[in-house]
Design brief:
Strand content: 5-15%
Radius of gyration: 20 Å
CATH class of the largest domain: Mainly Alpha
Bound molecules: FE2/S2 (inorganic) cluster
Oligomer: single chain
Helix content: 40-55%
Order of helices and strands: EEHEEEHHHH
Distance between the termini: 79 Å
Number of strands: 5
Shape: globular
CATH superfamily of the largest domain: [2Fe-2S]-binding domain
Strand order of the largest sheet: 2-1-5-3-4
Structural class: alpha+beta
């Protein structure tokens, strides 16, 4: 039986890297990320589950890391803001936020971006209302929200355009291959 102060081993994957950590069982995942892994992009806000600043993805779901204990993410795959870009290439949501003024001080931005990513991963063409609902748990003191919703809409539109372009190319390729097979 382990005592209250005893540390526990937790294995998890963060931004594609595997970790085995000895952690205080009552530390939060927010603390684990910021203090053990030095991933300080995930922000401390209220620590009460009310502001969304600490949002990360746990197995693809947006979760509040200030409310999670290490044992709850044992074996899970986490994505933090540090894992959103593809190397030097920003994620479309990051580009849209930057282009459309979806951030000012930036404190809420990591949580907003990850909540928005969780939405677009499950619903690539959300309505404006669905975007507002998905981000309702993420508070922003600066932007007035409209620019954030605009940015998520724009990123979604970009994804739709890219998918449409892929479909056109696939259809064109199919037509070329069919033409090549047709006896003349
Ligand atoms: S810090 Fe987690 S919800 Fe505010
Ligand atoms: S940009 Fe400052 S809190 Fe949202």
């Amino acid at each position: 039986m382990s005592g209250a102060g005893e540390k526990q081993v937790v294995r998890l994957t963060v931004n594609g890297e595997d970790h085995e950590l000895l952690v205080r069982p009552h530390a939060t995942v927010l603390e684990l990320l910021r203090e053990d892994l030095r991933l300080t992009g995930t922000k401390h806000g209220c620590e009460l589950g009310e502001c969304g600043a600490c949002t990360v993805l746990v197995d693809g779901q947006a979760q509040l890391s200030c409310l999670l204990l290490p044992g709850q993410v044992d074996g899970a795959c986490l994505t933090t803001i540090e894992g959103l870009a593809d190397g030097p290439v920003l994620h479309p949501l990051q580009r849209a936020f930057a282009a459309l003024g979806g951030l000012q001080c930036g404190y809420c931005t990591p949580g907003m971006l990850l909540a928005a990513k969780a939405l677009l991963d499950t619903n690539p063409t959300p309505s404006r209302q669905q975007i507002k609902e998905a981000l309702a748990g993420n508070l922003c003191r600066c932007t007035g929200y409209a620019a954030i919703v605009d940015a998520v809409e724009a990123a979604a539109l970009g994804a739709v355009e890219a998918a449409a372009q892929d479909a056109v190319e696939a259809a064109a390729l199919g037509a070329v291959e069919a033409a090549a097979r047709t006896p003349r």
